[in-house]
Specification:
Elements (H helix, E strand, L loop, with lengths): L1 E2 L21 E2 L11 E4 L1 H4 L5 H13 L2 H4 L3 E4 L25 H10 L3 E6 L6 H4 L13 H11 L3 E5 L7 H18 L4 E5 L19 E3 L20 H8 L11 E3 L12 H13 L4 E3 L8 H7 L2 H7 L8 E5 L3 E7 L5 E7 L5 E6 L5 E2 L3 E5 L5 E4 L2 E6 L4 E7 L2 E2 L6 E3 L1 E3 L5 E3 L12 E3 L9 E4 L2 E4 L2 E4 L11 E3 L9 E3 L5 E3 L5 E4 L10 E4 L9 E3 L1
Parallel strand pairs: 3-4, 3-10, 4-5, 5-6, 6-7, 7-8, 8-9
Antiparallel strand pairs: 1-2, 11-12, 12-13, 13-19, 14-18, 15-20, 16-17, 16-19, 21-25, 22-33, 23-24, 25-26, 26-27, 27-28, 29-30, 31-32
Helix pairs in contact: 6-7, 9-11
């Protein structure tokens, strides 16, 4: 089906309320993944050290710990399950030492526990472990897509994780290749949730498009690591906060049947503080992310179980509207996300990115509620309070407060909108030249064509194209170039849409300007003192 999106631009971006459709995409509607999948994956804790007895033990623990009853369904066997050689007919085989009973028997065991069976494969010649030489063979699906899809269906597979793991291939080649397995899975007649990762050892193509025409879930970042934050913005290794920075602006892509995937969870694996683990889970819930645990389920602490089985956060994540939380306010220190829920409630997250306790405040109006009295249900404690409109909490460093807001009249929280920005002086669009995503790329104006390099996502106060943010260099003065840069939540990447059509940098106070009021294709854009001249006025289309 065609998906059409619209957004309400709130007072955070000054201007009248306006609904702006983004480019439509053909959704991958295979009847599964109507809410984000929940389950467990072997990779984060065990890597290649997996076996039949281990996976069966995890399925047992999914039941005995109450994880299954909390909503976790999928038991996903990641890389290194396969015999390094296909059989004489070219069929995949289980490694006989690790999985002596075979994958069909393993799937039957998992199904017998009331759970679903997931498996890993790669679209080129090698899996990721094979690419890095940590596992023998070359058993990727390249040239075997139809054969492998039929094999998975015969084994009772319910979830396929499909990992690019190669530096080669353009984004168009990735789309074509991933779609080949999509179609092969569909042809089996078995509903199999399709999870793809286009980012391994590759330019980060995950954030550059809406993959909902290809898969049910798609990775948006590099692999998560057991740290809070690293110096990488979307490269290996990535911490929890780095991933949030990348994934939050992509909220407009999420809908039932298709969700952004910020990778598996690190809750219960050590290193992260209790506060950071709670934030990790809360933000994944608010971002409508798959909730795929990666810890050892057999030895979970009570604190880990309390986080992973929190019924109020799971309900927010599994809400049938399938919306991802949208940033309605934020800066380098904090974010406020709002997530519309079925039944007219709205979930709000107050996320403290800074290193010290902060009081974070928003209002019912800012998240899409009108009225005079509202009920706030604390997602962590279940306690309820009432408010006339103020929503506020003292949040510890790296912490997240989450409330379910009921009452009043519910409108739509702002949805990030992919839109063209049209210069009033020339009628041409703000354009990323040649779709170049290198840091420092200077946008130009060009004939409007609605291609991805002219689609700018408005999320909170950020402007994003091709997975990068519109950025003013630190200390920018009049005449400095405006540029693309890795998104970091800084004030120099925050912009205000003024009522006169100008777009002002929040840190510099300067406006987005077409150089010397020129109108030719390729004219550079820069920062200049705000005058509201015609070459500083922009419209969304």
């Amino acid at each position: 089906m065609k998906r059409l999106r619209a957004a309400l631009v709130t007072g955070l971006l000054i201007g009248a309320l306006a609904a702006v459709p983004s480019s439509a995409a053909q959704a991958h509607d295979n009847g599964v993944g109507r809410t984000p999948p929940m389950g467990w994956n072997s990779w984060n804790t065990f890597g290649c050290s997996i076996s039949e007895s281990l996976i069966r033990g995890m399925a047992d623990s999914m039941v005995s710990t109450g994880m299954r009853d909390a909503g976790y369904q999928y038991v996903v066997v990641d890389d290194c399950w396969m015999n390094p050689n296909r059989d004489s007919s070219g069929n995949l085989q289980a490694d006989p030492g690790r999985f002596p009973s075979g994958m069909k028997a393993l799937g039957d065991y998992i199904h017998g526990k009331g759970l679903k069976f997931g498996i890993y494969q790669a679209p080129l010649d090698k899996t990721c472990a094979q690419y890095f030489g940590s596992y023998p063979g070359a058993t990727g699906s390249q040239g075997h897509e139809t054969q492998d899809a039929r094999q998975f269906a015969a084994w009772g597979v319910d979830y396929l994780k499909y990992d690019w793991c190669s530096p080669t291939g353009t984004i168009d080649q990735q789309v074509t290749t991933f779609a080949r397995m999509r179609d092969a899975l569909a042809a089996t007649g078995r509903p199999i949730l399709y999870s793809i990762n286009s980012n391994s050892i590759h330019s980060k193509t995950g954030p550059q498009r809406d993959w909902g025409d290809v898969a049910n879930i798609w990775r948006t970042t590099e692999d998560i690591q057991l740290v809070w934050k690293t110096d990488q913005l979307n490269g290996y290794p990535m911490g929890v906060q780095n991933i949030i920075d990348v994934n939050v602006p992509l909220a407009g892509y999420a809908e039932p049947g298709g969700f952004n995937d910020p990778d598996m969870m690190e809750v219960g694996r050590g290193t992260l503080t209790d506060t950071e683990q709670r934030s990790h889970f809360a933000m994944w819930a608010m971002m409508a992310a798959p909730l795929i645990a990666g810890n050892d389920l057999r030895s979970m602490s009570g604190a880990t179980q309390t986080i992973l089985k929190n019924p109020r956060l799971i309900a927010i994540n599994q809400d049938t509207l399938g919306r991802q939380g949208v940033q309605v306010a934020g800066d380098a220190n904090q974010r406020v996300l709002a997530k519309r829920l079925a039944g007219d409630d709205i979930a709000v997250a107050l996320f403290n990115q800074s290193g010290s306790t902060r009081t974070i405040t928003t209002t019912a109006a800012a998240i899409g509620k009108t009225g005079s009295s509202f009920t706030l249900t604390d997602a962590w404690t279940g306690a309820t309070t009432t408010t006339g409109g103020t929503i506020s909490a003292s949040v510890p460093a790296h912490g997240t407060a989450v409330y379910r807001v009921s009452g009043g009249t519910t409108g739509n929280p702002p949805v990030p909108t992919a839109t063209a920005l049209v210069s009033a002086s020339s009628g041409r669009c703000l354009d990323v030249p040649n779709s170049n995503t290198a840091n420092g790329t200077q946008p130009v104006i060009w004939d409007c064509n609605r291609n991805a390099n002219q689609q700018w996502t408005v999320s909170g106060s950020s402007l994003r194209a091709l997975g990068k943010c519109l950025d003013a260099p630190a200390g920018a003065t009049a005449g400095a170039k405006v540029q693309l840069w890795d998104c970091n939540g800084g004030a120099n990447q925050q912009w205000t849409f003024n009522a006169d059509g100008t777009i002002r940098g929040n840190q510099s106070g300067l406006c987005l300007d077409v150089d010397h009021n020129l109108t030719a294709n390729g004219t550079l854009t820069l920062l200049w003192t705000c005058t509201a001249a015609v070459n500083q006025r922009w419209s969304r289309s």
